[in-house]
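In this section we walk through a basic example: taking a raw amino acid sequence and producing a predicted 3D structure, encoded as discrete structure tokens. The instruction is simple. Fold the sequence below.
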Amino acid sequence: MSRPPIRPQRATLAAGAHLRFKRLSPLTYAANRPETEAWTTHLAHRILSNPSLRARALDAPLRILDLCTGTGCIPLLLHSLFHRSHHSLEILGIDISCNAVNLARHNLSHNVNKALLSYSGSSQIGFATGDVFKRHEIWDDKEWDIVVSNPPYISPDGYDRNTTRSVRNWEPKTALVPPVSRKNTSSPRRARMRDEDVGDMFYPRIISIARGTKAKMVATEVGDMAQAERVAEMLLSEQAWKTCEIWRDGITGRNGGLEEKELGAGKVVVRGEGNGRVVFAWRD
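The resulting token sequence is shown next.
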């Protein structure tokens, strides 16, 4: 049996139901999954165990950038987990969808107004509309400590073959599938893209932003173990990251299940049990 949602998530669901009632958005668009809650919570434990990031609580804001933020569930959850240990926080969520950003702002104000999230969240969490594939001073011209993302990662064929009718009816497709079609495209290079390459399209850019903003940690959600291994290969091939890990759905506590896997570009640590869910890397 899955655990009930934590207080900020319950408020987010309530806000989502209210928005659906007003025909602004389907409920599933405002909700997040328990797998995302689990890895975000585990990430918080890893951050709090990192001496250099823990020290930031004393002299500077802890800066977290969330790419493809959707309705802001990850920033809200991270703030609820950090606001007591880090009195100075700066969390920014970016999404290309104006509707998603408006919902994220609504969810933030709803949680703060209902006292389900610390009042400091109103000034420490921000959301902005932007295309992560384009350079923007909001996120490119400053340093971030942690970059996180739950991007669109389902391939076009995977969307047609594996998603349920309820997902196709209620979830915005742009939140699930990268906005590149292998058909009817004027770009010969993109026309030749394999289905899995389309699903992986966001990851090189996420890694590039993490590298360019000197992030100490990067964590990004993936769809399965095969995709996790491909993303881990991207990170390992850069040789800029001290360690790379794959977290399965069953990641709990500090370690969970533990194994090492040899990939073409190096070794990766695999933690937890179940499906591959997150690729995590950090610098020295």
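Looking at the output, two observations stand out. The longest helix spans residues 98-113. The beta strands are 62-67, 89-95, 125-129, 146-149, 217-221, 243-248, 258-263, 266-271, 276-282. In the next section we compare this with other chains.
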